[in-house]
Write a structure and sequence with these properties.
The chain is α+β, with helices and mostly antiparallel strands and 142 residues long. The chain has three helices and eight strands. Helix 2 runs parallel beside helix 3.
């Protein structure tokens, strides 16, 4: 089960080993398929570019390793997840300042939504896109 993935689109993923020893096939949008075999033990594992690079039973060790790998790519992953400061959207930790608003372009708004698996129609207006985002934004006044 995916717990966290890169908010910048890098192929760095933190998994909870919910099905030890199982092999899963991941199909990408371009049709390429990658086979991933979950470890037979360990509670958590991290993949980079579809290869398992870390296995551990410690949540803290897994999350620290994940954040360090994200930082090696040159961006901040927001560190360890903190309830109240972060919200999880499509397995991506998101902070209040990352939510788009009317200043952002329609393309930037769609990029935000695509990474976080927020559905929209291709012909949605900018205001409709922002309204859809407001629904999942816990900091937005309702």
């Amino acid at each position: 089960m995916i717990i966290r993935k890169s908010s910048k689109g890098y192929n760095i993923v933190l998994y909870r080993n919910s099905t030890p020893g199982v092999t899963r096939i991941k199909t990408y949008h371009d049709g390429n398929e990658i086979e991933l075999t979950y470890p037979t033990s360990y509670k958590y594992f991290i993949t980079i570019d579809d290869s398992i690079v870390k296995r551990t039973n410690s949540w803290e060790t897994a999350e620290v390793f994940y954040t360090e790998e994200c930082e090696k790519k040159g961006y901040t992953s927001h560190g360890r997840a903190i309830v109240g400061e972060h919200v999880m959207l499509g397995q991506i930790i998101t902070i209040e300042s990352e939510f788009p608003d009317s200043i952002n372009t329609k393309s930037e708004i769609k990029d935000f939504m695509d990474l976080r698996n927020i559905k929209y129609k291709s012909n949605d207006t900018k205001s409709t896109l922002l309204a859809n985002i407001d629904v999942v934004n816990p900091w937005k006044a309702t």
